[in-house]
């Protein structure tokens, strides 16, 4: 439970108790139906208004600064005047407190008298702010910052004859504590202890790589939640070692998959693959996209045949397991799938994979049109366009068919007759928000992902175990992204309050897309004219491509619509609407423009009705697996007691102790003088012959050309060695010198 104090004062006091058991007390303004009620985080708000704005904030846009006072057992909490004999005991006690509460720590400074530490300051890892780069210098990597000016800290002072005394203890934070399911990603909980070191060293002796070593730790310790480190720590430890030397059908799903389906299962991609088991059964996963744009598995089936009856059976089991059918399903043009969808998924919109259809165009074209780039361009513009209406598509299609003499082509005629299954214009009219998944490529990537965890000759039991391991890995990556969403602060590119608000409600992947639209609205979008038609305000704006777009705002319904249809296609606000919001001096993105798919996990609402969010689905194990994990816990307790006897309370984390461990592994010390050095690479008779100049040129000419990102030409260069760009830079230098 957390006691939370709100800073700032208004006329109304409130107390809110969340599902985690934390209590929020303090003061804030009450406004029924405001966005503040929807975006309330457990114990506080996670967004801020633009303090630099000249305009007075409206009541529904008022945000308050929050502080968090964690509550934990008194025996774990430090207090002023507490005495420790050793400094290591003091820091370890504070780290235990931090692990229990849910935050990371770091040393912030110390004072020494000779070699003896007299003062030590330990702060929350989110203290301070990110150091900004020099003006005009852009970082190559986009990194989020954990720092948010947190003031929580502790200071230890050495008193002669007593030991180290807690001189200062500030326990109030300005951010949420890490949730229980995310605590294993904290740096304090990612340590390589004796058990990990022993397994890593043994695997190194057996020439087993770090990734397989981490999988072994996962199996031995009973799951990713019990490993105690990530694959990065295993790789780093291995890096230190290297540096020292220089016939039936089956269907599978679980409660977590069911929850994911109800959150993101409005659009489902379904495809089949082979060579996953020794029985040559067909593996058929149901796949979607989560709020980070990553593939998420809803379930899978193993089929003995690829016919309508098998697909019908699988779809029936899938709907029965999930409790509802998807709203849109994407498949290839398999006739058995089409029949099964019509039998079982009666109210589901069926869509064909556009990539498979466009891939067949080359096979169906006459030979005299194979190299016609104009035909390819015009056909793609009409088929892939999401901005035209179905009637406009019909006109464009007929023009292309008449122009190139394809009106009597049987295949093109059949595809036009079936256009409601695959053309973007027809799909979007019947099913908005269908743009995130247009092809079954997401299923193809999922098939490749599962094949990494399985072998082609495994039996069904082994395949099921491999499938579960793959799901654990996928969900662990998703949990890590959720952890980063709530414990990092994205780098903002503008001073807009809308961007600050977007950073608090959207996932990192969604915020990247939103941020580019906000930046476009600030830098490039301009107004052409504005008019009023009845209760609608009509804005005509111009973008960087000098193209006009129309944004309409309904004052009666308080809704926005843009002619680019971006919000209707992918659920994200476009730069044109953002310009209108900034023009209206809005500080917060309205509720109706939040969308659903790209929000942070706790803000995502179910797309299917009948879902009970109160059901705990994060840990689902059978009795035999639970008994196995109990034995693992007992084993780890024995190992922990043995570690205390050998090393005391601390882990082997210092540089000297790690160096000693590596030296014991190799059985020798680092010599002061190295006599034997690595040899140079030699060229022998069998290493190959030199190519002549003509052969080199012929080899270069045989390679396909690449498009330069600077000049846009296709050739043998790229943006790093473009002659045109270099010439322009040289001209600029000459002008500056003059």
Core attributes:
five-stranded antiparallel β-sheet, alpha+beta, 738 residues
List the helices and strands and how they pair.
Layout: E1 2-6, E2 13-17, E3 23-27, H1 35-38, E4 40-41, E5 44-45, E6 66-70, E7 83-84, H2 87-101, E8 105-113, E9 116-124, E10 153-159, E11 163-170, H3 194-205, H4 210-221, H5 231-245, E12 250-252, H6 255-264, E13 267-270, E14 282-289, E15 295-303, H7 308-322, E16 328-331, H8 335-344, E17 349-352, H9 354-359, H10 361-364, H11 373-384, H12 390-403, H13 410-417, H14 424-430, H15 441-451, H16 460-487, H17 497-505, H18 508-523, E18 526-533, E19 536-542, E20 548-554, E21 559-562, H19 566-570, H20 575-583, H21 623-647, H22 655-666, H23 693-702, E22 706-707, E23 714-715, H24 723-737
Parallel strand pairs: 1-3, 13-16, 16-17
Antiparallel strand pairs: 1-6, 2-3, 4-5, 7-11, 8-9, 9-10, 10-11, 12-15, 13-14, 14-15, 18-19, 19-20, 20-21, 22-23
Secondary structure: number of strands: 23
What's the assembly state of these chains?
single chain
Structural Rg: 31 Å
What would you call the structural class?
Answer: alpha+beta
Mean pLDDT rating = 78
Number of contiguous helices: 24
Report strand order across the widest sheet.
Answer: 12-15-14-13-16-17
Summarize the main sheet: 6 strands, mixed
Question: Low-confidence segments, ≥5 residues, pLDDT <50?
Answer: 1-63, 613-625
Which percent range describes the beta-strand content?
A: 15-25%
Summarize the structure.
This protein is 38% helix and 16% strand. The chain is built from 24 helices and 23 strands. The radius of gyration is 31 Å and the shape is globular.
